[in-house]
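> run fold D-cysteine desulfhydrase
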Amino acid sequence: MNLARFPRIRLGHMPTPLEPMDNLSKHLGGPRLWIKRDDATGLATGGNKTRKLEYLMAEALQQGADIVITQGATQSNHARQTAAAAAKLGLGCHILLEDRTGNTETAYTQGGNVLLDLLHGAEISRFAGGTDMAAAMEARAAELKNAGRKPYIIPGGGSNPVGALGYVNAALELVNQASEMGLRIDRVVHATGSAGTQAGLVAGLVGLNSGIPVLGIGVRAPRPQQEANVLGLAQRTAAHLGLPEGTVRAEHVVANCDYVGQGYGIPTEGMVEAIKLLAEKEGILLDPVYSGKGMAGLIDLIRKGQFGPDENIVFIHTGGAVGLFAYPDIFGAN
Ligand SMILES: *Cc1c(COP(=O)(O)O)cnc(C)c1O
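> ok
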């Protein structure tokens, strides 16, 4: 795999640390838990979208764009990182936010990520839940073109074969780190949503013949749909990389969607417990929408005895802690 032939702009602090979580491992009674700190990518409090934006923004500049358009849920971490990247590169940024949760609290509609979107100078417009957001982005792009601008559309979550290259790069980084540390990784676990993170990791780890399986914990779609989304994007990413057809197969894609609860962005008991546990045992902040539910899944599977005591499990912390401030009530604060 020759990633260097794809245009990339450095936006993040990489490599991100790969650290043991000894207190949590002890608390749960094994396996050996590790955390890959992609919450520490740096840009506007960090997160997984920064890796994708390194490739997406490079393509936008290559195409001569002067404004980027993207979309996400109200508390989108992707929107916030895109707004910051656009600010750094001197591009305009228009963000389309979809009300996916129906949460009308001011903290949710104005705080957390929304506060940072605005601080980075992005223009925001809001849409009802269920809107065809891809079509809304196209319509916005057409308006901007008519006004003489050069828009570049970034799909929700930055999840297309260009953005997924960021997680192919993360797979390379992780395998190199593990080999330097003499660490045998038995499984990688992370929260999966728009699928680009898992697709890039799978394409990268399979393309490298690493033998490391990936377990996605879903936060929105049911399992068949999530696995189909990840597999389709992983295969398109592999093709973009020039890997032989048939390299990425259905058996490489596993998404456990048992921890979504009532829906995307809606709190669950497991998520609240996971966030408290990581905060209290490891001094690490997870987020309520993605990494909290991802960790809730991992904790539950550990309790169900799904992993051997000597296995090394790497949880990828995909960021999002800014979203905690959009949910001030769920931790029993007063
Ligand atoms: C977007 C996001 C994810 C999910 O990544 P996808 O590539 O969309 O599947 C996980 N965690 C956080 C904090 C995110 O913002």
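The pocket of pyridoxal-5'-phosphate is lined by residues 47-48, 77-78, 157, 159, 191-198, 287, 290-291, 318-320 (CB under 6 Å).
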